[in-house]
Design goal:
The chain is α+β, with helices and mostly antiparallel strands and about 190 residues long. Helices cover about 30% and strands about 15% of the residues. It has five helices and seven strands. The protein has helices at about 5-15, 15-20, 55-65, 95-115, 140-160; strands at about 20-25, 80-85, 90-95, 125-130, 130, 170, 180-185. A three-stranded antiparallel beta sheet has the order 2-3-4. Strand 2 (about 80-85) and strand 3 form a beta hairpin. Helix 1 packs antiparallel against helix 5 (about 140-160). The protein is globular, with a radius of gyration of 18 Å.
Length: about 190
């Protein structure tokens, strides 16, 4: 991979990219710290037990905005890329302390929201760059894997630590735009 070519440009130029992947708009790129409620998933453990299933998303948003007014101040954390797939980046805390802190954020959100998804402890942090539109042909997979391995090596050497914006409570209608309602400034 040429140092003059940004690692992500290689990805988009792969011959299968636009046939097989739907790319996420750049303004919507984010890392989810805690999965909030979703309109079509209204049962425990994806929806708090003490909230009626008929509650509107607007009512739920107002309820959580009020609850989050007393959200604790938590330290900042940094992430590192551990894997690249055709769909995006897999992340983890950059240090053992960062891993502990991001887990502390997740637990504090779970306490505030009143539920924990079944994968709460094993959730893989990620930034989604694309969604699958069509499965890849097996013949192209070795070429893709080589390219992804090179991208990972390049990214980890040029950006060993990702400094993300502070966590925010957001609402969204689709994956194209996340409206930040509350931004949690770390201590």
């Amino acid at each position: 991979m040429s140092r003059a070519t940004p690692w992500c440009a290689i990805w988009w130029r792969m011959p299968e990219s636009h046939r097989h992947l739907a790319f996420t708009p750049i303004p919507s790129l984010h890392m989810t710290v805690f999965q909030g409620v979703i309109e079509y998933r209204r049962d425990w453990p994806y929806w708090p037990k003490d909230m009626p299933e008929v509650c509107s998303i607007a009512e739920m948003t107002a309820f959580y905005r009020k609850k989050l007014e007393s959200f604790p101040k938590l330290p900042a954390f940094f992430m590192q890329v551990t894997r690249i797939t055709p769909l995006g980046l897999t992340l983890e805390g950059a240090t053992p302390e960062d891993k502990r802190i991001v887990a502390e954020w997740r637990n504090a959100f779970a306490d505030a929201f009143g539920y924990r998804h079944p994968d709460h402890e094993t959730y893989e942090f990620h930034i989604t760059f694309a969604y699958i539109k069509r499965w890849f042909d097996p013949d192209c997979l070795p070429r893709w894997q080589r390219m992804l391995d090179e991208c990972l090596e390049d990214l980890r050497s040029t950006v060993p630590v990702l400094e993300l914006r502070p966590p925010a409570f957001c609402e969204f209608s689709d994956m194209k735009h996340f409206e930040e309602l509350i931004v949690f400034d770390p201590v």
